[in-house]
Amino acid sequence: MTPSRELTITSPANPRLKALLALRRRRTREETGQTVVEGYEELALALEADVRPRTLFVCEELFSPAGRAGSQDIGHQSDLLARVRETGVEVVHLSRGAYEKVAYREGADGLLALVDQVGMPLSSLPVDRPDFLGLLAQGVEKPGNLGAMLRTADAVRVDAVVAADPVTDWGNPNVVRASKGTVFALPVASATTDAVLAWAGANDVDLVVTTPETDRLHTEVDYTRRVAVVVGSEKHGVDERMLEAAAHRVRIPMRGKANSLNVSVSAAIVLYEAVRQRATR
């Protein structure tokens, strides 16, 4: 195993740090094919998914002392650093000022990695299972909502997550953060709505589309065959193309004064109905 190359950066104006900051822009992420992932939990999950960082940036001054916080063990940053060193990945030590220049989250824990962009072509998604379960998100605007849906998708073990006409990309640091790193553990893809509909049709995947414009409740359809749950943008929901392609249009009952739920909550409710049905069939 080649020993990791290590160096130290103390100046916040260092060109390598400017390059990291540039990756906050989607255009730069797409041009370079790279993104950043920050935080112990997110990095640990990425490593478990066989993601090999290009570079690990660390500020050991920000590492937590080993111990417990409530029900959680903390202080494992040093362990993760040791694991990464064993792979020969370049390690860059940053002064606190330099690290805080590139950190994008509050309460930074001193770990940030440069990694390859996440995602695959639609044609590479695993759709061969007879009980395929997918999640399609059309035009979702907020990275936090997309990331939250990924956490649910991981929890219920969906086979793939697809963003149709996405407003953001899978490598957005806030998607990575909100997903707690599960974006690296799931097969994810992005494409136009037309391409997604063609893919679903070619693979015999029924679309269960959430919309308030229906009388059918989300509990009244069969999720035990090859299906994908579809949710739309926060402002407009799904468009007419998705509604026309739906095998089922479903709504979640609303008993209060609000007429809609957060899109990530809607996705979770319908996905767990699919899990319930599959567990009892």
Automatic annotation (TrEMBL):
The lineage of its organism: Bacteria, Bacillati, Actinomycetota, Actinomycetes, Micrococcales. It comes from Intrasporangium chromatireducens Q5-1. One of its GO terms (biological process) is methylation. Belongs to the class IV-like SAM-binding methyltransferase superfamily. RNA methyltransferase TrmH family. Residues 14-113 form the MRM3-like substrate binding domain. GO terms for molecular function: RNA binding; RNA methyltransferase activity. This is rRNA methyltransferase. Residues 136-272 form the tRNA/rRNA methyltransferase SpoU type domain. Keywords: Methyltransferase, Transferase.
